[in-house]
Amino acid sequence: MTPELTVLTLAALLQFVQFILFALPANLELGTRYTGGSRDFPPDKPMSKRTARLQRALNNHFEGLILFAIAATVISISGQSSVLTAICAYSYLIARILYIPAYAYGLNPWRSIIWAVGFLSTLIILVVALF
């Protein structure tokens, strides 16, 4: 397996971890009656700022993971995996890991800088695949 596909697998597992990091406090704050229901109506009370941030970080990872999955798959299938693309893949993963606490604790502008590292790492892999 290429380093990029290894990182893709680890990033998918990170998605599970992020879901748990969000779901546990959300269930405690909103109650399992709400979170286990159909959610046809808004909750009686809002989530805490930190839990809401964890939800947004989770959603952001879903968005970024799609692009990274494309990049990792294309670079691996085309046989273009290199030291550069492996470094970019691991940079993406490290950035996604650091993004969680940066977002949860509102560490601005670090949250945006960390996000940009992951985004640019994915972009580099895609550009390398074209040339």
Automatic annotation (TrEMBL):
The keyword Cell membrane does not apply. The chain crosses the membrane at residues 6-24, 57-77, 83-105, 112-130. This is MAPEG family protein. Its main location: membrane. It comes from Roseinatronobacter bogoriensis subsp. barguzinensis. GO terms for cellular component: membrane. It holds the Pfam family MAPEG. Keywords: Membrane, Transmembrane, Transmembrane helix. SUPFAM superfamilies: MAPEG domain-like. It is found in: Membrane.
